[in-house]
Each structure stands twice: as C-alpha cells, then as structure tokens.
Amino acid sequence: MSAELRKINFSDNESGKLKSLVTKVHEDCPSQIQSRYLSRLEAYEDQFPIRLTDIFWEDPRPLLLTNLPTFSDVEGSKILVLSIGEAIGKCAGYSEYNQSYITDIRPSTLSNESSSGTELLTMHNDLTFASDHCRPSALALVAHTAEGNVPKTLLADAVEIASLLSSAELNLLQQNIYEIRAGGKLRWPCEQVRRISVLEHDASGRLRIHMSFNNICPISGLDETTTHQANDALKRVTEIALEVGRAKGHVVKKGQALLIPNDYVLHGRDVFEDENFERLLFRSYVITREMARRQNGNTMISLRL
Ligand SMILES: [Fe+2]
Questions:
Q1: pTM for this one?
Q2: Which residues neighbour ligand 1 (ion) by CB within 5 Å?
Q3: Are 191 and 137 part of one and the same domain?
Q4: Which one, out of 60, 183, 200, 237, has a CA that is 20 to 30 A from the CA of 135?
Q5: What distance in angstroms lies between residue 192's CA and the mean position of ligand 1's atoms?
Q6: Ligand 1 centre and the CA of 12: distance in Å?
Q7: pLDDT tens digits, 24-35
Q8: Distance from residue 139's CA to the centre of ligand 1 (Å)
Q9: How far away, in angstroms, is 175 Cα from ligand 1 center?
Q10: Range of 89's domain?
Q11: With contact defined as beta carbons under 8 Å apart, do 105 and 98 qualify?
C-alpha cells in the first residue's frame, strides 16, 4: 500500500453530474424506498460520471472520492452512497443481518452494533465469517455529517501487514488452523463455528486477510506448542494491523466517500477523543457484479450460503 491514500477528485462538472443523477433518482422515488432508488439507479447506470469498476478492482486498495456533491436532506446522501456502490458493483443487504441496503453509522445508544459505540473499534473486516459466495466485497462510506473532532476510519492493507510479520508468523496465519464464531448477533438459531486461515491468496495471487475482533482463535486439537504459536501470531497480526491502521487512517469528511475492498484491507475506528463532534456516516455493502450474477441477481442475500 502506498503511503498516500489513493484518491479521485471529482471535477466540478463531474460533481454536478452526480448531483443531477441523485436529484433525479430522488424525484423519481417519492416513496423514498431503498429498493426503488436502486432500480432507478440501474436504469441510469451509464450516467455515473466516472467509470470506477476497473480502477477499484484491478488494484483493490482503499479509494477516497473527493469533491462529491453534498446534500442537506439525508435521502440525498443515501442515494449518493447507493450510486457509488452501484458504480463498482451491486449494493447488497443481508436477510439475517439488518435487511437494509444502507446502515447508518453514528455514536448512538439506540443500536447494539459495535460501530455505533464511541470506544476503539479494532481492526476487522465486515461479516468475515461469511463465505466467498456472499461476504461483502466492498464497503462504500459516505459522510452526511462530519463536524468537529470526528474520529479517523483506520485502514490497514493485507500486504503491508504481512510485510511486518516474520516468516514463521506468516506461515501459521496462512494455515487453516483458526476458527471463527459467527451468528451470535444474527438472526440464526444458534452460533456457528467455521474454519479459516487469517491470510490467504486469492485466485490471482493477491493477499487477503480475515480478522474479526476477538472471535477468532486457533482450532482445538492442535498440539500445545502450535496452539501457543498460533495464538501469538494472532496477537501479533492484531497489534500490527492497529499500528498500520492508525498510520494510514482517514477522517471521512462531508463531500467525500471512502471505498474499502473488504477482503484485502482491514478497517477500524479510532476512539472518540471528546464529545465535540457530529457524525453521521452511511455505509452500503457492495458485492461484485459476478457475485450478484451467481446470486441470480438477488441482492438481499442470505449469509448461510
Ligand atoms: Fe466494520
């Protein structure tokens, strides 16, 4: 990962075109239903001002979009995040999670989600336990409100994390000797345990990483030394991820959007230093068009697949 966050600055003309697109979709959908917004965006798919799909997926690193149009009405920012998600794939919701194409991220006592707290949110991917058939491929984040002392979104690339690990640690983390507990917060009848490796290469040889707070551990049945070493490697990768995440994080401001490739880059959120801020982010999960085709075009999908 290069030192600088990769950035595309929309020209005033491109920003104006995007504002017109969002406004048109808003006017077309007086009922303000997310699935209606998505079907209108599909009808206008060639009107997004920049072709982002190849730029984003050929080199899956975080991508910051700047000089975006801003909206005083939350519906405008919601359509904006959906339009950006659709520019790199298909926005997706999960039937056993919150059944929504958009999630609001803000400090709130009204939600049990970990992203709605104010403490440090350690480095992780979203829905890490889910299989390659349904796990979100990317996150699109748009700031509707970001004023005052807003905390950083922490970002750590798998390649950079791996470069700071020893070869012994790398060797352990690439083995299928870890398990992840899943489903505690989902609408599943019981928790499930799935076997994973923390690091793995995808079909084209790019390094992926899988981390999820404290619900990953070495599988039982390993000998005592390997269990110990596997635990140490996990602890080490967690520490390094936070170090890199803090160095490479970014405060998402109004007029900006951040795209994060979920399998290749971990994210987290720094502590809220004080209460002098107002922040409302909208997040949409995005799956690749290929994954959407394999789901027969269904974008409200199950995490069991
Ligand atoms: Fe997250």
A1: 0.94
A2: 126
A3: no
A4: 237
A5: 20
A6: 31
A7: 999 999 999 999
A8: 9
A9: 24
A10: 6-149+251-301
A11: no
